[in-house]
């Protein structure tokens, strides 16, 4: 199993998001005053500034906005992954996540912008948090 | 041009000549460069009353730098927004001088990134420092600096059908200019570029045949990791009357930041905000610019910034670079990165200072790839990570 870096706490902005991940939910925030979708997590609405926000759960389905295949990473935590794809994925609810695309034979050939993907929660060797990644839908 | 306000001028410059400088500290590079830039201007150590520092390493920012230099400036500015910090600081120095807060401003840079063996591009920015809101969302995924930029190139190719050859051409032009600059040639030799490809001019095929570091960026689209540094002296019009070299006037500046946004266009940089401010202040358009010194951490940085500065439309870089138009010996404007750029001359991590230095050399007639009659230059820095949080700083310069 992979052994990726885990999120670290205390970190009050992202803690509710990662509590969701533990329950295999992909959570995002919505503003109760102006309906803006806010991501990455924080305590205020980036459109109107209020702290009147609520957490929602995404269906986990979206589209690859862009990606790159990392051929070389000197960080030992990623050395065993081989070539791996980093990506921005636009979720159908209107927020963009930074993530990895997994579940393809050859990331240099099998991924493209606009591809439909779905969240998967990747179990880790160590640490209590699985890591949300995306695979072809 | 006659209507432009001339409130501050670049009076002195120095680029530290070495890119491999073992046994020298970043602070020593800064001080040697400041001393040489003051000499270039015909000014004295004791004339300095404005200190601008980007706290890039061991410096401790404006406070630490004042202590190390042993001076007591009336303006201290520690603006750190990545590689474009020097364009931001130039904007601030212009304002501070115009407001009468100082008369002789010094910006400096020093870095020993190469000798320290910093894996800037491929080290992975993961799990360092205290827990924070961005790190917790990125650390698990192995983002490297290069892949952050590569994602922008990928989307640019997707949105506009931009051919790989367009990006490669930027590397080709920059290398051609580098081969005319003895310091750049020495840099490439000292950094052992020859182990991968001869230190010579390169072709589009050379670029596209070089190995992929992070799809779709090839090795020859990536900047070097060097040691180095330099300094810049900015003065008031009164001081400029008695300096050793012709003053180079700062006629427009713009600053902007940009970051990942839901639904945002990753191919548009902060330059799209900073450049119109700078050009508006200068009262000129991109078409009038002779010299375009555009940050080239990677080919995609330069490509997107050329578009955002208004030299061509968004997505039009492929047509724009045709026919070698960016070369110093091509009559069409502008000419790009005549010192050899970060790709082939100097990139210790924050290249923004060198953009200003080469602009000044061109407007003085001192470049190794001199463009005859160059009278207007733009230095545009891009700091941070292009595909994520980044800064754009635009400075427009005019000769006397």
Task: Give a concise summary.
Chain A has 137 residues and is mostly beta strands.
Describe the largest sheet of chain A. Answer: 5 strands, antiparallel
Mean pLDDT of chain B: 95
Structural class determined from secondary elements of chain B: alpha/beta
Helix content of chain B: 25-40%
> What general form of chain B does the structure show?
globular
Question: N- to C-terminal separation of chain A?
Answer: 22 Å
**Overall radius of gyration of chain B:** 20 Å
Unreliable segments of 5+ consecutive residues of chain A: none
How much is the radius of gyration of chain A in Å? 16 Å
Describe this structure in words.
The complex is a heterodimer of chains A (137) and B (400). With 137 residues, chain A is mainly beta. Chain A has one helix at 15-22, and strands at residues 27-31, 37-38, 53-57, 61-70, 84-91, 96-101, 116-122, 131-136. A five-stranded antiparallel β-sheet of chain A has the order 6-5-4-7-8, with no helix packed on it. The two termini of chain A are 22 Å apart. Chain B has a ten-stranded mixed β-sheet, sandwiched between helices. The longest helix of chain B has 16 residues, at 26-41. Chain B is globular, with a radius of gyration of 20 Å. The model of chain B has no long low-confidence stretch (mean pLDDT 95). The chains are: A mainly beta (137), B alpha/beta (400). The interface between A and B is large, with 49 and 43 residues.
Keywords for this structure?
heterodimer, A: 137 residues, mainly beta, 5-stranded antiparallel sheet, 1 helix, 36% strand, B: 400 residues, alpha/beta, 10-stranded mixed sheet, two-stranded antiparallel sheet, 12 strands, 34% helix
């Amino acid at each position: 199993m992979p052994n990726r870096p885990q999120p670290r706490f205390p970190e009050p902005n992202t803690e509710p998001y990662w509590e969701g991940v533990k329950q295999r939910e992909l959570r995002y925030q919505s503003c109760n005053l102006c309906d803006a979708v806010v991501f990455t997590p924080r305590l205020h609405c980036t459109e109107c500034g209020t702290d009147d926000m609520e957490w929602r759960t995404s269906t986990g389905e979206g589209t690859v906005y862009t990606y790159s295949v990392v051929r070389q990473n000197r960080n030992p935590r990623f050395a065993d992954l081989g070539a791996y794809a980093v990506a921005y994925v636009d979720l159908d609810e209107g927020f963009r996540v930074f993530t990895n695309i997994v579940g393809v034979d050859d990331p240099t050939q099998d991924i493209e912008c606009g591809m439909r993907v779905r969240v998967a929660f990747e179990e880790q060797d160590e640490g209590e948090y699985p890591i949300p990644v995306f695979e072809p839908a | 041009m006659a209507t432009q306000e001339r409130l501050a001028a670049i009076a002195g410059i120095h680029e530290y000549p070495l890119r491999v400088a073992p046994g020298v500290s970043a602070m020593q590079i800064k001080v040697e460069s400041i001393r040489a830039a003051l000499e270039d201007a015909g000014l004295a150590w004791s004339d300095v009353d404005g200190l601008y520092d980007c706290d890039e390493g061991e410096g401790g920012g404006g406070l630490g730098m004042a202590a190390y230099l042993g001076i007591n400036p009336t303006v201290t500015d520690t603006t750190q927004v990545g590689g474009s910090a020097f364009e931001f600081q130039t904007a601030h120095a212009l304002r501070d001088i115009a407001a009468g807060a100082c008369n002789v401003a010094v910006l400096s840079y020093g870095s020993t990134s190469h000798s320290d063996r910093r894996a800037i591009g491929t080290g992975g920015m993961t799990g360092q420092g205290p827990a924070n809101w961005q790190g917790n969302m990125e650390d698990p995924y192995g983002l490297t600096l290069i892949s952050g930029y590569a994602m922008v190139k990928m989307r640019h190719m997707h949105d506009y059908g931009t051919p790989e050859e367009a990006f490669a051409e930027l590397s080709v032009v920059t290398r051609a200019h580098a081969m005319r600059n003895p310091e750049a040639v020495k840099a490439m030799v000292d950094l052992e570029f020859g182990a991968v490809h001869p230190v010579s001019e390169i072709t589009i095929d050379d670029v596209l045949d070089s190995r992929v570091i992070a799809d779709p960026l090839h090795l020859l689209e990536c900047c070097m990791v060097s040691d180095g540094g330099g300094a810049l002296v900015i003065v008031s019009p009164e001081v400029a009357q008695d300096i050793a070299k012709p003053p180079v006037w700062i006629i427009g500046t713009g600053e902007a930041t940009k970051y990942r946004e839901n639904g945002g266009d990753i191919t548009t940089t902060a330059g799209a905000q900073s450049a119109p401010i700078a050009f508006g202040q200068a009262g000129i358009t991109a078409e009038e610019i002779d010299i375009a010194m555009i940050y080239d951490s990677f080919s995609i940085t330069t490509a997107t910034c050329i578009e955002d500065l208004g030299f061509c439309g968004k997505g039009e870089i492929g047509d724009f670079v045709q026919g070698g138009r960016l070369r110093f010996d091509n009559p069409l404007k502008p000419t790009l990165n005549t010192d050899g750029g970060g790709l082939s001359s100097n990139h210790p991590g924050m290249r923004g200072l060198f953009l200003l230095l080469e602009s000044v050399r061109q407007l003085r007639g001192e470049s190794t790839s001199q463009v005859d009659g160059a009278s207007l230059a733009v230095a545009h820095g891009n700091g941070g990570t292009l595909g994520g949080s980044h800064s754009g700083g635009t400075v427009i310069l005019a000769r006397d």
